[in-house]
Each structure stands twice: as C-alpha cells, then as structure tokens.
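lol forgot to send this yesterday, sorry. struct tokens for the thing we talked abt
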C-alpha cells in the first residue's frame, strides 16, 4: 500500500466516523472515490437504516459533480455488500460504475456477505486489496462485529466519578460531579449506541430521561433498556416523555397486569428470570443481539454495574474522572471485597483524554475484542 492509499483511506475513515450516530444497526462505513490522477471524485458514508450505503453516497456525489468513474479507485472501510437487503448490492454498483480498483479495510463478518462482495468484484475484473485501515475500521464497528460474531452487543459501561472513585455522596447526591463538557461528551457516546441501559433503582431515584440531549442528535434516539425485576417502573416516569423511542423492560416478574400496563405505554416487556429471581443478564444480551442492538451503553447504579461485571458481561468502561475528592459515598460498581490483588479485575487502557476540566478514560477488559 502506498502513502496515497493511506491518505485516502484516512479520508474514508473520517467519513465512517460521521456515520456513527446514523447507521445502526448497519455498520458505520465510509467511502472515497479517487480518479486515476489522484483527485477525489466523491465521498460518502452510510445513512440511516434503509438508506444508501457509503458506496452509493460516494457514487452519487461523484456523478452529481459530473465526474467520470471509469478507472477510479474506491477506498471503503468495510467490504461492499453483496446481497439484497434493505438496499441493493454495493459491489455491483461499484463495478457497474466502472471502478477499476477497490481498497477495503476489512471483510464483512455478516454471513450474507463474508467475502462474497470481494469475489463478485474480482469476477467483474475489479482489483481488490484488503487491509488498509483495518484496525481503526474495526474499532469503529466493534458493536456490529460483536453482534454478528458473538450474537450479543458490545457492552460499554459509562460512569462519572471523583478522583477517589465516588459516583455519589452518601445521601445520593451526584449532580454534577463532572463538567458540562464531559456530560456533553457522554451524550455523544449515547448517540452512537443502539441502546442505553439503566436499572430500576436509577429510574426510581433520579427519574431520568436517559436520552440524547447534549450532543448532536442522531436521526432517532437509542432504545432504552430498563432492568426491572419486579416491574416497579412508574407509568408517570419521565422516560415515557421521549417520543418515538423503543423502550425494552426486562423483568423476572410474571405480573400480567403490570406487564399489560407497561405495554399500553408502548414498552416491550420481556420476562427472563434467573434462578435467583432476578433478570438473567446473559439472556438479556442475547435477546438484544436478536433485536439488532450493536452497542449497549450502560448508565446504571453500582449494584447493577457490579452484577454485569461479576458475570463477565462488560467489554469496556468509559469513565469521566473529575478533579475533586468526595470521601465517603457510592463507587462505580459493587464488586469484591478481594483478598488478593490477583483476584481483582485487570483492565487495559485504550485512551486517556482531557474533556473540559475532566479526564475521559476508556479501559477495556483483556481479550474482549477477540472475535
């Protein structure tokens, strides 16, 4: 791969990032079309579900500008699709337009594609090269890869805490530990998720909206998932006021009357009890995978956070660390106590960045992205 290939794939990856709040449950993909003389002819990214894919958007941009595409190179961050789903095959559209070369970051793990796009392009006489930008393209779509390969979403646990690890004072006060900039950044991470998960304890204590408000809104709100073992969710909770949002309530209760009342509010109620009378969290993740949730963004209390961590269901932590000390209070998660450091949960740093007055820490559980 040449330096020019690297530069053009960087542009395609920038396009893919624009798709993050739009494309779910489809992957976030970017495409850049480049002429034989090295000039950019068109660029695009995947639109909302049912809308055009990145390749089609780039082709339309090039054609609208009057560019001829014979002999062009397409830089695309994921294998062009080869099946008729909500849209037609992108591999055929590229070949029909006269594209001579496709440089792709990754093969699509979807069994409906899985190399078939590359095969059809090569059969049409198109040169195909794979691997440029693979690491970043995969990072952008860990949720999609997780759902397709593992059958469950990528689980990201978000928390805001003080330098000494407190998420609330002993009396429950937690607003606001972090800065406005950190809160807005947190909403941007909400916006890229397929669903936001919280527990009934958080809903009863804080009555939150749990929607995207402080960041550039996506075309639709992420689903809201509430873990409510005993179906205690109030019909007057603020979360019901968010329009056109799917609400999924997971419970261990067989109370038909309460279930019907919540369903009348527009919720889907799913009963998945475990032997302890709580929600079977692993079964919940599999159910969310079947519902095409790629990324699950967790904003819950320390008890539910602890349960998810103890059961090995969390892939990474997104923590906003404020420059303050709070002393006594709630922590991020109810885990332990441990007697040996070797028993504690090890993490791997992914990034550490300053956001406003705070630090944003992204830490991954070892081996979670091997799929």
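and heres what i got for the seq, position by position
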């Amino acid at each position: 791969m040449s330096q020019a290939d690297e530069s053009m794939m960087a542009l395609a990856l920038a396009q893919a990032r624009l798709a993050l709040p739009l494309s779910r449950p489809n992957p976030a993909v970017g495409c850049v079309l480049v002429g034989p003389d090295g000039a950019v002819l068109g660029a695009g990214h995947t639109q909302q579900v049912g809308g055009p894919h990145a390749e089609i958007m780039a082709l339309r941009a090039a054609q609208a500008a009057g560019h001829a595409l014979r002999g062009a190179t397409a830089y695309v961050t994921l294998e062009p699709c080869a099946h008729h789903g909500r849209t037609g095959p992108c591999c055929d559209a590229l070949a029909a337009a006269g594209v001579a070369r496709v440089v792709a970051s990754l093969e699509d793990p979807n069994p409906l594609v899985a190399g078939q796009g590359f095969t059809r392009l090569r059969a049409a006489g198109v040169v195909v090269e794979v691997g440029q930008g693979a690491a970043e393209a995969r990072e952008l779509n860990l949720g999609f890869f997780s759902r397709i390969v593992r059958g469950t979403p990528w689980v990201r646990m978000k928390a805001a805490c003080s330098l000494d690890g407190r998420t609330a004072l002993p009396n429950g006060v937690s607003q606001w530990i972090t800065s406005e900039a950190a809160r807005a950044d947190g909403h941007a991470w909400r916006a890229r998720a397929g669903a936001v998960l919280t527990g009934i304890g958080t809903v009863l204590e804080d009555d939150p909206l749990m929607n995207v408000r402080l960041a550039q809104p996506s075309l639709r709100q992420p689903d809201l998932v509430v873990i409510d073992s005993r179906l205690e969710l109030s019909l007057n909770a603020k979360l019901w006021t968010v329009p056109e949002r799917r609400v999924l309530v997971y419970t261990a209760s067989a109370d038909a009357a309460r279930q019907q009342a919540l369903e009348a509010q527009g919720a889907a109620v799913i009963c998945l009890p475990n032997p302890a009378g709580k929600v079977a969290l692993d079964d919940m993740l599999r159910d969310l995978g079947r519902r095409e949730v790629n990324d699950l963004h967790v904003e819950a209390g320390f008890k539910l956070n602890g349960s998810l961590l103890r059961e090995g269901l969390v892939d990474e932590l997104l923590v906003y660390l404020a420059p303050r000390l709070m002393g006594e209070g709630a922590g991020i998660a109810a885990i332990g106590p441990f007697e040996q450091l070797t028993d504690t949960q090890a993490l791997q740093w992914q990034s550490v960045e300053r956001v406003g007055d705070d630090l944003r820490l992204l830490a991954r559980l070892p081996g979670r992205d091997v799929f």
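The CA atoms of residues 209 and 241 lie 8 Å apart. anyway ping me if u want another try
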